[in-house]
Automatic annotation (TrEMBL):
The keyword Chaperone does not apply. The active site is at K37. Substrate binds at T41. Keywords: ATP-binding, Biotin biosynthesis, Cytoplasm, Ligase, Magnesium, Metal-binding, Nucleotide-binding. Catalyzes a mechanistically unusual reaction, the ATP-dependent insertion of CO2 between the N7 and N8 nitrogen atoms of 7,8-diaminopelargonic acid (DAPA, also called 7,8-diammoniononanoate) to form a ureido ring. Its cofactor is Mg(2+). Its main location: cytoplasm. Belongs to the dethiobiotin synthetase family. It holds the Pfam family AAA_26. This is ATP-dependent dethiobiotin synthetase BioD. It comes from Amycolatopsis heterodermiae. One of its GO terms (molecular function) is dethiobiotin synthase activity. HAMAP family: BioD. It is an enzyme of class 6 (ligase).
Length: 241
C-alpha cells in the first residue's frame, strides 16, 4: 500500500488537479485509489468541493473522504475558529488515512494550501500528518516568477522535519510560457531538491474524463504511470520561444 501527501507552494497552484491526475492514472492502471481531503475551506455544506472535482475527473471508482468542511475561505484553523466548528488534529487525519490505506493500493492526502498551514491552535499542520504516516511528499508548484523561493522553502521545511520530498509537479502550465516559466523547468528541481515529476496544462479542470486521462498520462512521470520526460518537455517548450 502507498500513501502520498500532496502539498502546494500556496493556494491555486493546481494541487487538486494534480491529485486527480495521479488518481486517474492509478485507476487506469487497475489500482484501488482513495483521496483524503482533511479540511475543505471556503465551501458551503451543499456545495461541491475539491473531492467532487477529483471524482468527476478521475472517475467514480476513486474513494473520497472529507473530514471537515468550513464555509470561510481561510486556513483550517482560522475557518474553524470563525465558524465555531471542531478543528482537526494530525492523529485524526492519520487514522483516517491509515483506514483508507488498508483497502486501497494508493491513498492520496491533499492538504489545504501549503505544508505549514495550521489545522488547529497548537500549530499542527500537514507536515505533522506526513511525518506520522511516514509518507512521501509531492510538492505542487506554480510555473512562473516567485515559485523558486516558495518551492525551496517548502522543501527545506520538509527536510528539517524528517520528510522526504519525492518530486515537484507544475500544476498549471500556461499556454504561452514566459522566460521565467521556461527557466523554472530546470530550476524547480534544484529548488525542491527532487525531480520534476510532471507538468500539467492550465485549464485541465474543464476537460472531459477521457481527455483528462490523456493529459495526465502525457503530463506525469512514469513514476505515476505516465509518459512525461522532463528533458524532452523542456526542449520542446524552449524551442517554441
Amino acid at each position: 500500500m502507498t500513501m502520498l501527501v500532496m502539498t502546494g507552494t500556496g493556494t491555486g497552484v493546481g494541487k487538486t488537479i494534480s491529485t486527480a491526475a495521479i488518481a486517474a492514472l492509478a485507476v487506469a492502471g487497475g489500482q484501488r485509489v482513495a483521496v483524503l481531503k482533511p479540511a475543505q475551506t471556503g465551501v458551503g455544506p451543499d456545495e461541491p468541493g475539491d473531492l467532487a472535482d477529483v471524482a468527476r475527473l478521475a472517475g467514480p471508482e476513486v474513494t473520497t473522504r472529507e473530514l471537515r468542511r468550513y464555509p470561510d475561505p481561510l486556513s483550517p484553523e482560522a475557518a474553524a475558529r470563525r465558524s465555531g466548528l471542531p478543528t482537526l488534529d494530525p492523529g485524526e487525519i492519520a487514522r483516517a488515512a491509515s483506514d483508507l490505506d488498508t483497502g486501497h493500493d494508493l491513498t492520496l492526502i491533499e492538504g489545504a494550501g501549503g505544508l505549514l498551514v495550521r489545522f488547529d491552535g497548537t500549530g499542527s499542520s500537514l507536515a505533522d500528518v506526513a511525518w506520522s504516516l511516514g509518507s512521501l511528499v509531492i510538492v505542487v508548484a506554480e510555473a512562473g516568477l516567485g515559485t523558486l523561493n516558495a518551492t525551496a522553502l517548502t522543501a527545506e521545511v520538509a527536510t528539517k522535519r524528517g520528510l522526504t520530498v519525492a518530486g515537484v509537479i507544475i500544476g498549471s502550465w500556461p499556454a504561452e510560457p514566459d522566460l521565467a516559466a521556461l527557466s523554472n523547468l530546470e530550476d524547480l528541481p534544484v529548488a525542491a531538491g527532487a525531480p520534476l515529476l510532471g507538468v500539467l496544462p492550465a485549464g485541465l479542470g474543464t476537460a472531459s474524463p477521457d481527455d483528462f486521462l490523456a493529459a495526465a498520462r502525457a503530463g506525469l512521470s512514469p513514476w505515476f504511470g505516465g509518459e512525461f520526460d522532463p528533458e524532452l518537455f523542456t526542449g520542446r517548450a524552449s524551442a517554441q520561444k
